[in-house]
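Chapter summary example.
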Amino acid sequence: MTFLQRRGGYPSGLRAGRGFSLIELIITVTILAIGLALATPMFRSVIRNSAISGQTNDLVTALAMARSEAVRRGTQVAVVAAGGSSDWSSGWSVIADSNRDGSFAGADEVIQRSPGVDTQYHIFAKNIAGGSDAGIVFNINGAATAAFDINVCFPTGEAVKSRRIQVRTSGNVSSFKNTTGSSAATCPVGS
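The structure predicted for these 191 residues follows.
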């Protein structure tokens, strides 16, 4: 016997098994819609932040691979922009100078290729010494032939949400939030 059966039944106006009224259903759906409307922009930002972090990590990994392969193979290894310019958005390759001619084309071994980034993202590199921005070369000691700044741009172009990668001549690679002060191209304003 349940508590309500011992007390003589349900309070006035309530019956067992009636479910929700139309007003209760409308209120519940309205609250869910408001919650979803508030959560969607935050979720979009989380997805974009995740993408920026992933792209930054992919490039840092490629740079670390090039450095370690240069030491392991005893030859120069470069990370080269697919587009051959300071805009690395179309991807990059890690290439070993197999024939030791100082160029990274033709018979040289491609160790890894990375695809381009989504069109709303941009990656820009700058050789701080003033040489070519299209490739970062590591020598047999693991040192970079020049220091570089690389900007991995957030779709809105905001410097504080974008990432900066620094390659020092020692070969050390570091990444930071915020591209302010970077010598690489400024991130374009987007959506």
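To summarize the output: The CA atoms of residues 9 and 63 lie 75 Å apart.
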